[in-house]
Design brief:
Residues 403-517 form the LytR/CpsA/Psr regulator C-terminal domain. By secondary structure, the chain is α/β, with parallel strands linked by helices. The protein has helices spanning 63-70, 84-87, 190-208, 220-229, 259-267, 276-294, 297-300, 303-316, 321-324, 327-339, 368-377, 417-427, 460-468, 527-530; strands at 91-92, 108-114, 144-149, 156-161, 166-169, 172-173, 180-181, 184-187, 214-218, 233-237, 241-243, 248-250, 253-257, 317-319, 345-349, 352-355, 358-364, 405-410, 431-437, 450-453, 471-472, 477-479, 486-488, 508-513, 519-520, 533-535. It is built from 14 helices and 26 strands.
Amino acid sequence: MSDYRSVSVQDRRVAPAEPGHRMSRRAAASPPPSPPGDEPPRGGRRAAPGKGGGVNKMRVLAWISIGATTVMVAGALTGYTVYRDAFGNIHKKAVKILTPRPPSTGALNVLLVGSDTRAGEGNAKYGQKLARSADAGGKRTDTIILLHLSPNRDKAQLISFPRDSMVQIPTCQNETTKQPMPSYRGQINAAYSSGGVSCTMSTLETLTGIRIDHFVEVDFSGFKKIVDALGGIQICLKSGVDDKYSKLKLPPGKSLLNGEQALGYVRLRHYGDGSDIQRIKRQQIFLSKVVAKATSGELVSNPARLTRFIKAAAQAVTMDPALADDTAKLLDIAKSAEKLTANGVKFTTIPWIPDPDDPNRVVWKQPDANELFTAIRTDVELPAATPSATASSAPKVALKPEQVQVQVLNGTPTGGKAREVADQLSKQGFKVVGLGNYQAPGGKPIAKTEIRYAKKAADGADYAGVLTGMVVPKPAPTAGKIRPTTTDAYTSPVALPSGGTKAAGAPVIQLIVGEDFQGVKVEKLPDSVTNNTITASAQKNVCT
């Protein structure tokens, strides 16, 4: 993965066998037809990268503009009523999800998708038209983005899912026939091609366990309108571009891109190593600049430009009715955007490895990807007001997770639950000293998770409090330990972190896992995640 971690938009030459570099297009062995974008050009033969003008050359990651959409009602909308009419221009599309849905949390998760449909004014001229497609070329999503806004709306994380990801697509309703489609393994963008945004939402919810509250979608022409309304976006290239497929010609150095040029830039494939993964990195750089400009004083202080931006964004997007019609929710997002700083917006690419069945595709790296999903799922609580540092409120000792000893007891009927939770705690630095099971009188499972410490432990509440802050839901520590039904030894699968010297007289804290247990918060993410996470402020000018 190291070849793809750089965020520089320089022309790096990599061997063509890199994952994500489309050297071949094998037919997927899945029940539904391949997405329209994966069909061969006329003549029945697929064009190799750099050799022809096939449909694949015309793909776009139009989600870039959707990042601006998320803050489209931002720009400090103090005069919200001025833009009420603009909100009425938002296109709406209902969603129908057939699969069970994860629970909602205090966070806000929005699916951001870019549609390269050729339907509609201003879209049909892009790409090859497929005569049998009702929308003049079909529709696809290239890269799908999950926007996660923290519960107190002061942090935002955008997670990119490469379109080459091979995943299990759940049962969905075909958007055209309205008939159920059976689950199958396929490329993730096929979910949108056949089942629309509802199927994409269902696929991500099933794979990640994250509730997706809303969606926002934008197409080619909408993308251009948003960029133009912002007055253009400046980029910097280490080497120039002259690419006929994306219709983009730029010199080395700085360029202020208008909407048409920006569309060519985010579609650009024949640059650098030509992979989807590197293209995602370029677009994250671009999106960071969109976010910075959409939330800048330059826009806010110019009422005329701000108004044009709001109107252009509203006309350019499609949303679910629950979001489009909820002016309070839009205003909530607007206020959230006011808090976001360059350091508050993070861009992450899902950890991936080459697909063992096809090196031209990728699969998500596990358990790394699941740890990232857990971090998002457990970001569910609004922080309590900070108490004054009095003798009664301040902890008696400053504690780290690695100083806390934990015995994990399974109070549910699910076998192996204690070891599963123990592994999660170990990865976050806790010292798990044992496992076990616990049954309430009568053999009933424990409904609610408990955290207990010995009554005679002077600092027991402090040690238990460290564990409490890492468990979802958050149980209040209770004095008085319980007797396990059975016990077992535990060996951590990870090396314990350094600096975790046991505090003198440290008590053993009991975690009794109940049926309401949702997970352990993930604060220490694997390198494959952190090395692929960048902030807007971390974007470097490759020209210097």
